[in-house]
Amino acid sequence: MIEKSSTDFNGISQDMIQLITDLYPICRSITGNGIRETLNIIGKIIPIEIFEVPTGTKVFDWTIPKEWNIRDAYIKNSKGEKIVDFQKNNLHVLNYSIPVEKKVTREELTRHLYTIPEKPRWIPYRTTYYDENWGFCMAHEQYQSLNEEMYEVFIDSSLEEGSLTFGEMLIKGESEKEFLLSCHICHPSLCNDNLSGIALSSYLAEHISHLSLRYSYRFLFIPGTIGSICWLSLNKEHCSNIKYGLIVNCVGDAGKFIYKRSRQADAEIDRAVVHVLENCEYDHEIIDFFPYGYDERQFCSPGFNLPVGCLSRSTHGRYPEYHTSADNFSIVKPSFLSESFSVYLDVIDIIENNQTYVRTDPFCEPQLGTRGLYDKIGARSSSQKDQLAMLWVLNLADGNHSLLNMSERSGIDFSTLREISDILVEHHLLEKC
Question: Which of 263, 30, 282, 257 is nearest to 165 (CA)?
Answer without folding.
Answer: 30
